[in-house]
């Protein structure tokens, strides 16, 4: 997997180029949801997007880069949203920050649960690992703001932030697979808040 390029070859600079770029990613999303990762091909994406295969290859060298770009965009958007929310709320109570964090995480994964199911169940682990490493340290620093008023001296703030991120992310992702209705209804949201309140308050 390390020998495969996961990043786009270039970023569009003109409006027409952006339209092509986004059409390719949208087509990738639809195919992943409807048919799965294994059946995804660059030719199939180009056909669905209504662009030539040459146009697709101007931006993406392979199907892995298509999926990595979708996943990276989601991860960046989620991190940026939560970074902004928690930094604005850094003087709030621990309970408030827990609730804001969980709400933001659940919302980020509830908007398109079928795509997240594919990410969770079908995307090769090595590909996901490479994607999720980017920006992780800074994200953990932000999550650590939640723990600033807690008293767990045997656990460092960074390690506690890691535990919070992994627990929350894993439960939400598995909830998409096993308990989709509970995720969309808010039940898993409430359960996560209760667990984190018990852990940190």
Automatic annotation (TrEMBL):
Domain HTH tetR-type span(s) in chain numbering: 18-78
Origin: domain of life: Bacteria
Cross-referenced InterPro entries: DNA-bd_HTH_TetR-type_CS, Homeodomain-like_sf, HTH-type_TetR-like_transc_reg, HTH_TetR, TetR_C_15
Protein name: TetR/AcrR family transcriptional regulator
PANTHER family named in the record: HTH-TYPE TRANSCRIPTIONAL REGULATOR BETI, HTH-TYPE TRANSCRIPTIONAL REGULATOR RUTR
Coiled coil: none
Alphabetized UniProt keyword annotations: DNA-binding, Transcription, Transcription regulation
Pfam family, one: TetR_N
Organism expressing this protein natively: Ignatzschineria rhizosphaerae
DNA-binding region as annotated in the record: 41-60
């Amino acid at each position: 997997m390390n020998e495969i390029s996961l990043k786009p070859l270039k970023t569009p600079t003109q409006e027409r180029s952006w339209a092509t770029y986004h059409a390719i990613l949208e087509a990738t999303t639809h195919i992943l949801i409807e048919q799965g990762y294994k059946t995804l091909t660059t030719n199939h994406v180009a056909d669905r997007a209504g662009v030539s295969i040459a146009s697709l290859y101007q931006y993406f060298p392979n199907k892995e880069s298509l999926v990595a770009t979708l996943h990276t965009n989601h991860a960046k958007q989620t991190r940026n949203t939560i970074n902004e929310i928690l930094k604005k709320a850094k003087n709030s109570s621990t309970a408030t920050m827990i609730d804001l964090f969980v709400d933001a995480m659940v919302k980020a994964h509830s908007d398109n649960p079928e795509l997240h199911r594919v990410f969770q169940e079908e995307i090769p682990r090595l590909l996901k690992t490479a994607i999720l490493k980017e920006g992780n340290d800074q994200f953990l620093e932000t999550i650590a703001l939640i723990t600033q008023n807690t008293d767990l001296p045997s656990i460092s703030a960074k390690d506690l932030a890691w535990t919070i991120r992994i627990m929350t992310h894993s439960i939400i992702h598995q909830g998409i697979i096993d308990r989709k209705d509970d995720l969309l209804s808010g039940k898993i949201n409430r359960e996560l808040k209760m667990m984190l309140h018990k852990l940190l308050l």
